[in-house]
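Table S2 (continued). Query chain:
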Amino acid sequence: MNNFFNMLISARLSIILFFIFCTNPFVHATSIDKYGGQIVLSTSSDPKSFNAILAKETSTTLVTNMIFEGLTTTNAVTAQVEPHLAETWEVSPDGLIWTFHLRRNVKWHDGVPFTADDVTFTFNDLVYNPDIPSSARDIFTIDGQPFKVEKMGDFTVQFTLPTKFAPFLRGLSQEILPKHKLKHVVDEGKFNPMWGIDTDPKEIVGTGPFKLTKYLPAQRLIFTRNPNYWKKSDDGNPLPYLDKIIYLIVQNADVQLLKFMEGALDYYGMRGMDYPYLKPLETKRNFTIHDLGPATGSNFITFNLNSSKNPENNKPYVDPVKLLWFSNRNFRRAVAHAIDKEKIIEIVLNGLGYPQHSPIGPGAGFFHNPDVPQYNYDLEKARKILSREGFKDRDKDGILEDKDGNHIEFNLYTNSGSTERVDIAGIIRQDLEQLGMKVNFMALEFNSLVSKLTSTFEWHAIVLGLTGGIEPHFGKNVWDSSGGLHLWHPQQKIPSTPWEKRINELFLKGVQELDEARRKVYYDDFQIIVAKNLPVIYTSLNAKISALRNKFGNINPTNYGGVLHNLEEIFVWRKYLIE
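Corresponding output:
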């Protein structure tokens, strides 16, 4: 009888355990349970291309970062550099010769093995090719000198540096592109238009965990699992777990919010204004809001200081009268005092934001300088500055004139898909008009705005942002006067101002200094120079807030990486796959 009752209890216990482990999605999942499903995300703009080497805008890098990988990666939790396509490396005692041993089990999406030829091709034929406008060339050039990149064997690459380069390992997250797909195009001088948005996705091959399989303009991007991905989980499972990643192209943030609430999106990068609405709905709608602190990026207004002429018609990019205003540092100082950062935080960001004063914000950590000059909101002070510079309303029509009687009028742009930036621009416009400036505001589609910044150079003022990061040198293409993203006056042959020349010098010193404390001194000085000269005038930093449905496992949010930094490890709980 006792044996019978023991068997009965054992059977009931087995049934209970079965229901606990097989029907509860929030217990440990086996490797078999983790495979399958999809995540639906959103982006506010179509990609401009699929070419990682030419990418200058987030609409493109969103795609290329999914497909391509570098020799190293930065751990999103520790912020330390780790091996990626390179398995190991060693460095010479003088710190100038680095030898990398590549993984032997990596294949491109088309099945061709990844080798040292792809690495040397990426750097020698693409990054350092003067006919290819690569932003990476700014980063991997020290005082005009490139790195020497050599193949030492099928799976061994050697980098010889002209001088010590502090962020070298972190910089090798640079995407590696396939030689077998692109070498002939480079040889024919046709690389720059290669992999445009009209390219068949099958032609775009990377080594990453997902591959682009479909692009429907203005609708969606679809990525599918790379079944031959080299990376394994900690317990040896092949990655990735998800079958599919879908990006819906939703140009308006209000519509993105609506789609998230309807269930069409699994993730929503929240605005501060959304918090009061979404927070009470977390439990009912089965999602979690993640607040990860200040973003590492920036929001700012910048004026066009480009004194060059369009070579096609020999006309200046900027009306010389307006250029004279914009180039006046005190004019920019007055504008800085007209930026009501607290109002932006309160109204636009719903209190979930941080005033920004420096090009390296508090979210970047160690290199942030909190002691830069700051410009408190003070319209009266702004008026006095303008008056001293000769900007006065002489004819009493409510509009300021300069010393020559020209009315102070200019166009202000931002991207239409960002309701936050549209609202920020509206607040700035209102205060500038109180000062007597006539501001013509226009919201443009994101890629059209980027074209003005990087191609036509025909703009007056723009409210925009940059993504930022924890390594200052990776912003060199923005801050060096010759950089392609030196927004206010790009690609200068020689620095147009003494302070821009000094920033060039500081970046050169900072990148060659291996002692972190001494590096910080250089980048602290750089931040002070920017704050004094105001080539960009900062507004407010967003808090890094997002909402994610509770259907996913292996979520490990960090300030540096965000909520979805480990997409290849994220899986859908079995319960939601069944339903």
